[in-house]
Every structure is written in C-alpha cells, then in structure tokens.
Structure prediction request, 464 residues.
Amino acid sequence: MVKVMNIIQTIASIPLFEGLPDNYCESLGLIAVRKTYARGQMFFSEGDDGIGFYIILSGKVKVFKLSADGKEQIFHILEDKEPFGEAAVFAGEHYPASAQALVETSAIFFPRPKFVELILSQPSLALSMLALLSLRLRKLTLLVENLSLKEVPGRLAAYLIFLNDRNNHSKSIELDVSKNQMAGLLGTIPETISRILKRMSEEKLIKMSTRSISIIDKKGLADLAEGVRRLA
Amino acid sequence: MVKVMNIIQTIASIPLFEGLPDNYCESLGLIAVRKTYARGQMFFSEGDDGIGFYIILSGKVKVFKLSADGKEQIFHILEDKEPFGEAAVFAGEHYPASAQALVETSAIFFPRPKFVELILSQPSLALSMLALLSLRLRKLTLLVENLSLKEVPGRLAAYLIFLNDRNNHSKSIELDVSKNQMAGLLGTIPETISRILKRMSEEKLIKMSTRSISIIDKKGLADLAEGVRRLA
DNA sequence: GTTGTTCCTTGACTTAAGTCAAATATAAAT
DNA sequence: ATTTATATTTGACTTAAGTCAAGGAACAAC
Prediction:
C-alpha cells in the first residue's frame, strides 16, 4: 500500500491533474502503473495501438517519426511531469509517432479504457486534458511555423531562446541533448548545427563552452528567430 | 424562433456534437451565433483574444501564419462542418494563427465562456472535443512530417492523394484552391508547384486539364509520397 | 595512461528549391 | 469583344543547406 500512496501523492503534484478532488486522484492512482525504461528503450512505435498514455516522473523522452530513408524528425523532447501519447487515447486507434527514452526514464502509465471511463465521470479532468491538448497543438503549430517560415539559423535561435527561458533565464544553457537530437528537432543535420553555432559565435551572439552555451546578445538572437536579421 | 430551431437542427448534424442528448443541443443552439463572412474577410488574426470558436456551415476557410517578410504558411484549409479556433478556447488567451474566408462563408460562432460552462456540465461533450483536438494534432503531425521528412514532390503527391481520397476516390481532382494557396499549404511557392506538376505529367503520373487533375498512376504518386521513388 | 567509441567539427562538392523577371494564359469587367 | 486584372508558366540565376569524407575532441573502459 505504501507504493500506492506514493503514486497518489505524485499524481496530485502533476499540473495536468492539479485541483482535482482527492478521491479522483485516488481513482487515478488505482489505474496508474509505474514503469521504468532504459536508455534507448521504446515506449511505443508509430502505428502501435494507442493503449494508453504516460507521464514522465524522471528522465527524458523523445517523440519522433522516421522517413523511408531513416531521417528522423523529432516532435518533442519531454521531461519531468510532461505527458505523452495522450492524443492517441482519444483520437484514433494508433500512436501517430514513436516515443523512446533518451536516458533511463521512469514514468506512470494510464491505460486507455479506465482513463476514458474516469473522464466521463469527471468534467474538470476533461477540461484539464482539453487545455493540455490545446497546448500541444500550439507547440506543434510553432514547430510548423519554424520549419517552413524560418531558415535554420532562425529555428536554432528560437530553440536557444526556448531553452534559456525554460531554465529561469539564466545566462548559460546546458546542452543536455546531443547535436544530433537538436538537429532532429529542428529538421536539419548536425553538421549544419555546428556551422551555424560557429557563425553565431563569430557574430558574438553566443559563447560556446564544452557542454554549455552562454547567450551574449539575446536581442540579436531574438531578431534571428523573428527572421528580422540574418547571419552573415 | 424559427431561426433558433434551424440552428439546433444544424448543430445536431455536426460530427463534433453527434450523439449529444437533445437538451444539450438546445443549450448549444442558445449560445450559438450565426455569422457570414465575405471572401477575404478575417475571422480573427494571430494574437487576438480567443473569444470563441467557429464551425463552418458553407464556404472555405484557411488557417495560416505570416512570417516577418510576408511568406504565408497555411496550416489547414477547412470546409463544411469543420471547426476552427477551438484550441484557443481551452489553452491560452490568444489565437495562435489567423483565419480568413477564401470564399463567401457562413459559420456558427460559440462564445468561449458559455461554451466552457456547458462543457463542465456535460462530460460526453468534453470527450467529443478531446477527440477533435487529438485529430487536429494528428493532422498537424502529418504536416510536420511532410515539411521536414519529404521534399516538395513528395508533399505535393501526398496532397493530391489526400484530395483524391476525400473526393470519393474519383479519378479527377477539382483544383478549387489556387496554386498560390496550395504552395502555402505545402510550404513552398507557386513556381515550384508548376514545375513539379509538369514533371509529374511528363512521367505520366497525372494528366492536367484547365481546372482539374486526373491521377493516372496512383501507385507512382504514393511511392513519391512515401519517399520511395523520386522525380527525374 | 592507452585504447576504443562516440560525438563534433571542418572542408569540398552537389543539388533542391528559392528569387527575379518576363511571357502567357485565364478569368472578370465594362 | 476588348480591356484589365489576376494566375500560371517558363527561363536564367543564386543560394541555403544537404552529402560525403576525413580529422579532432571528449568520454568511458580497461
């Protein structure tokens, strides 16, 4: 029972379920299953039946698709307390993309049938899910915008600013994803990332250290991201 | 009252609200407002407050974003009974993109506050909305995949097949959107569309008439869309 | 340390697709 | 029909970014 209690407390602390009455958190706890995935292990693959969704407790997960020739487009890189696979629970039968652990990751799993049942009895939970999906939609919209409206330096600048904003606006950005992953997220290749980061350094927009990047001219980066300025 | 009755019947026929109890359709009818938009008129612009969402009764609407230098990325082109602006109702405060009537369009509008209220009292309505948002998410996922994993001929092939499938798999596709719009949707420019359609004709994948396109080699197109084959 | 592995950088080359500009074609208006 | 406007096609040119291939770091294991 100790383990169940832990899950319930954990659930209550997840933004998605915030403000739910205690007894519903308990119901959630009862249908939730804790799982651990090793680095590189797949949660699910594109086309699999959508049997439920996950919420990350710790670790890092990438959601992506592969093209016929093996190129990979990453849609999201997700961390603590972020859910994934949730769209498949409501829409179609299958997961539209694949999900893989980038590092050892622990997550809780909510099986579809029981969760849908719960939703039906609890409108405010439904409202939370609606807000969540809307947010995802917004994030994806941003990605589409980036991919088609901006060239790579702009996308990269936007991503650096995103990372910076997420880390409390501290001047230095930890590069906890490989340039390979970065490239996949930005719809390009690692070589291009390298070259652009170099140009950004030359133009004194950023300073590079081994495992991190410092933003020197945030305005300049923002201009790049807006497509206002371009890189020499 | 006649007008209200019409709206209620209309609402009951919309997939999004299918299977709802009559009294809820009536409630929806009471908060719904019918509006008409001229060709070129804006429903809302990116950044506007998300005051509600629309469902198309007749006409055609494009949802898009503009870059700093005026390039336009179209996210969806929507027709009868399709909703738009719904994400803004739940997520943030603002519409993430703009919506404009491509032809004279009539729609019903649901104001946010009253709709949210309704959702809270009716879980199965919430479930419909969840499914809808998931579907949107899926469509966008596809767009991202197209934009980054495939080159333009592949995207165009995928789009032609999409149009074909939508129109009951009839051999000929009506080009009811300009090549300009098409280009915007596929993240490219009209010139490129022209050239690729020409090459597709030369390779006997399609046959072009003035206002329509016939698919000759569907398999060939599908191969292009999958990225299996390439255009000479 | 030294070895092996993985990741990152750099260079030379190629190419898809964008820009600019001009010529046609189609549709709309009088 | 003739004119006007709008869309489409075509050509010549440019360029961002991809491919291929070779060196260099960084890191882990022994």
Chain B has nine helices and eleven strands. The domain at 150-225 of chain B is CATH 1.10.10.10 (Arc Repressor Mutant, subunit A).
